[in-house]
Amino acid sequence: MRIFSQHHIETQNTDPRPLISITGHGKPWASVFGYGPVLRLCFDDVPMPAWRDHTGVLWQGPRLQDLTEALAFCQIFQTLEIDVHCLHGKSRSAGIAMVVLTDHFQDASKALEHLMPHLDLERFFPNPGLISMGDQLLGSNIDQVLSVLPRYVSWKAYWSKRGWTP
Asked: Tens of pLDDT along 45-80?
């Protein structure tokens, strides 16, 4: 499983692999010409179902349905040769990838091990709402495994200060 930004998907990749394409509400869909089957998900990069920022803009976070659709899509292909992207390729896509890989390996540590050779840890901080939902859905410990990564811990703290609780 590979994690990319939307820019990479649109400009540098024409791989016929299956793709999970994540776009925020009110944003245009990514151009995914050249890819195989595509699952399109639409949610913003916030960990809670809805959050209003200081300017009054309403952000809509992931739902359990988004996660179950991603898991079902990946199970169809029974391979890890699947790409996932969001705008920057570091939070929403990373969260989906960690949950999908944890489901595949039945072990969050093995999921992180699988991703590590391909990661820039400064750009990897999975959406904590997706991780919390994944832990509940799979009965896993993804949050605990990711707690060794300073960027993930600071991302969780950022959202906790803004009212998110797992």
From this structure: 999 999 999 999 999 999 999 999 999 999 998 888
Give 33-56 as a DSSP string: TT-SSEEEEE--S-SSSEEE-TTS
Indicate left, alpha or beta for 35 from its phi (over 0: left) and psi (-120 to 50: alpha). beta
- Cross-strand partners of 40: 21
Asked whether residue 13 carries a pLDDT value surpassing 70, the answer given is no
Domains plus CATH for the chain?
Answer: 2-160 (3.90.190.10)
Measured at the CA of 68, the angle between CA 154 and CA 43, to 5 degrees, comes to 55
Report the alpha-carbon distance of residue 94 to residue 162 in Å, rounded: 21
25-35 pLDDT per residue, tens: 999 898 888 78
The set of residues, in sequence order, having a beta carbon less than 8 Å from that of 130 and lying 6+ positions away, is: 47, 62, 67, 92, 95, 96, 98, 99
Cβ–Cβ < 8 Å for 5, 87: yes
| Contact call for residues 46 and 159 (beta carbons, < 8 A) | yes
Report the DSSP beta bridge partners of residue 81. none
